[in-house]
Amino acid sequence: MIAEAVRRSALADYAHRFATLSTTTGGDLSIHEHPFVSQINLRADPNDRRLIQELEPVLGFALPVVPNTVGSLDDRRALWLGPDEWLVVGPDGQQEAIERALHNALGGTFRSLVDVSANRTLLEIRGPKASELLAHGIPIDLEARSFGPGRCSQTLLAKAQVIIERRSDDPAFHLYIRSTFASYVADWLLDAAAE
User: Are residues 86 and 145 in the same domain?
Assistant: First the structure.
C-alpha cells in the first residue's frame, strides 16, 4: 500500500474557532486563513532600470521601490520587504509559473528567486475591531492615515515575525505568518479577541 500525500493547511484545525469568533462578535471581528498562497521571494537590484522595466509586463504592474508599499494587479501582488527584496504573491498553484516568468524576464541578471510558498500561511483579520485587536500585539500605527491601502510592513505580532498588508480602505489586514508560528499567532489572536 502506498501512502497518499494530503495537503493540509497550517491552521486547518482553527477553522471552527475562527467561525465561532465571527459569530460571537456579530461580525465585528473575523479571522480567515487563506492557505497555500503562491509566494516567491525575489532579490534584485532596484537601481537596474532595465530589470525593473522588464519585470513590469510579467507582473502586470511596476515593482514597488518605495519602502513598505505594494504593487498589485488582480490576484497578483509584490510586497516591498527591503531595498532589494520583494515577496511576489499569487493564487494557489501558480508558484512555478510565477517563478518561471520572473526567471525568463530577468535572464542573466544577478538575482535570487526562491519559492517560499510553504514557508508562510496567510490570515485575513477583518471587521471594525480588526485594528484594535492587532494594536494589542503590533508596535506600528495601523490607522488608515499611517498605514493605508497599498502598505505593508515586516513587524512583530506578539513576538512572532509577520508581514502585514493593508489592501483597501476596508477594516481588513492580511498577515503572512511563518507556518511554524501559525498556531502560536492564532492562539494569541483568539485569546486577545476574548479579552
Answer: no
Whether residue 4 lies inside any domain: the answer is: no
pTM assigned to the model: 0.93
- Here the cell at position 110 is 544577478
The CATH number that applies at residue 156 is 3.30.1360.120
Whether residues 72 and 55 share a domain: the answer is yes
- What is the rounded average pLDDT of the residues 46-57? 89
